[in-house]
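Request: Give me one sample?
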Amino acid sequence: MSKPLLQVRDLCIDFVLEDRTIEAVKGATFDLAAGETLAIVGESGSGKSVTALALTRLLPVPPAVIKRGEIEFEGRNVLTMDAAQLRKLRGGRIAYIFQEPSTSLNPVYTVRSQIAEAVRLHRPDVTDVDAEVVRWLDAVGIVDAAKRMHDYPHQLSGGMQQRVMIAMALACQPDILVADEPTTALDVTIQAQIMELLASLKERFGMAVILITHNFGIVSGFASRVLVMYRGKIVEQGPTAEVLRAPKHAYTRALIDCIPQLGSTEKRLKTIDHAALDAA
């Protein structure tokens, strides 16, 4: 059996503030195989994004402190990498897209400039950078890419901005794409389009994907495996279909119960009783 592409073992992360210490991640352990799609699900503050950012040591230090644990990418310890090794890892091997493309894109540079910078940094062998920019804009469904690459972010809709962010990430040809709440800022119709795009690109280029989300509703048709985080801990993990069919943890059941059901006679969506969960 081949070794996982990514291995995380007993990862513990604190945020040390002047008046208190917050335990953000408590003993996270999971693997990611090459080409796999993994969803990390939980509410805001559960530790999902902190875990994802720790994979390439993007957390601000201080206040973030990795107390203990191991993060291995292709058998190499990320926690002992030097600055040059981290620059190659970030974007080149593990790339990110985030939930607010309007704040991730630089408003004073064109789409071309921003994607070209990523290409030059991580793929210096590319000789025709403009052609490469057009190639990736075409791949994510930007119509008339040769013209639109000269646009500034404010000239694009939210959905198009997110497509540009995906193009920028994929232009580096990463082994892992981390999609952190990639549809939260978009309307429902565009959300579906972006998830379909990610699924097709994943199959086309064979990369592994980590989807960070609070919404179990978008997980079932996308991820093969799911981790559920609650207050910094992974409380359940397994094949997506199995977890959705027979959730073992009360928090997982509560998250699933929050998904709107077609034909339901309930007047209000169910809420999560955190006091009861903490007391259990």
Remarks:
- The longest helix spans residues 188-205.
